[in-house]
Amino acid sequence: MQTSFEHFAMGAMLGQSDMPPKDNGSLCFGAPWQRQAFGMALALSKQGVFEWDEFRSELISTIAAWEATHDTSDPSWDYYEIWLTALETMVKRSGLDGRATLAP
Amino acid sequence: MDRFEYSRDREATNAARARALEALLIEKGVITSETVDKIMAIFATEMGPFNGAKLVAKAWVDPAFKILLAQDTMAAVEQMNFATKGAGAEGEHMKAAVNTPEVHNLIICTLCSCYPWPILGLPPYWYKDPSFRARAAREPRKVLGEFGLDVDPGKEIKTWDSSAHIRWFVVPERPAGTDGFSEEQLAALVTPESMMGVAIVKPPGA
User: Fold this and answer.
1) ipTM value of the model?
2) Predicted pLDDT at B193
């Protein structure tokens, strides 16, 4: 089973120089919700809802929790899903959500 | 077919979660419906590998700048007047690892996905891949080989693990056949991959 980086490496060897990483920035998001999750995290840190380093710590521990329970080559890995989970945790922790509930 | 269904549901669920979160933040007055677009527009226009390529090209034509870039990266970046002042996140402590005939540098982030945004933009998806992060630290030569880069066995490979404190990027070696090139012409040769250390800068036309 191929991981995404091996897929890229293979593409690079086959000379597909127009693979996504070439378009760094614009094609890093596989779906609009990934971009949304990314932009919201930046916005909230800019607004001071949390410090960027706090968010990063939460992201690191969410990734570590995934890696503790999955093989590193597990294809179900989804970076932005983990990012979104970390972001939801930070929003809950900030108390911003009050009694409003986030979607399950 | 089952896996397709599963993955489509998962995408839909994640999209719904992101929508719900954004709606909540808008309702609480923390952001507006335009905030994400505004922030992402800054990324598209001000932060990206086009900045890193300019740094590298300048280092190639200006030996004093190359030394400054290696020794005091942020002072060198200051001189470039990039439009990313106060970018904050991920841009505060960048450091250059300069390739030489003896040493090839590779950047990774073993814990998550730290990356020098202002000069490289957002990391490609494989940089965040658990398998890449683990293997690049353990067996960089083999991983680079899989990227199609066979590093001379006599050359040392150094991996630089980005963290909250330092975000690394690589200054690749100037390729042959570029004598007399302008900074602009040189910058056009510099790829994001070469500034991550998973590729070298190829001579023009190669």
Assistant:
1) 0.73
2) 92
Torsions phi, psi of B201, nearest 5? Answer: -85, 125
Q: What is the pLDDT of residues A9-25, one digit of tens each?
A: 444 444 433 333 333 33
Of B43, B112, B129, the CB nearest to A5: B129
Q: How many CB atoms sit inside 10 A of residue B151's CB?
A: 17
Please classify residue B182 by burial: count the beta carbons closer than 10 Å to its beta carbon, then call 0-12 exposed, 13-18 middle and 19+ buried: exposed
| CB-CB under 8 Å, B130 with A72 | yes
Task: Please judge whether B191 and A45 are an interchain contact, meaning their C-beta atoms are less than 8 angstroms apart.
Answer: no
Contact A77 B14 (CB under 8 A): no
pLDDT at B142: 94
Helix (H, G, I), strand (E, B) or coil at B29: coil
Q: Would you call A96 an interface residue with chain B, using a CB distance cutoff of 8 Å? A: yes
pLDDT > 90 fraction of chain B, expressed in percent and rounded: 61
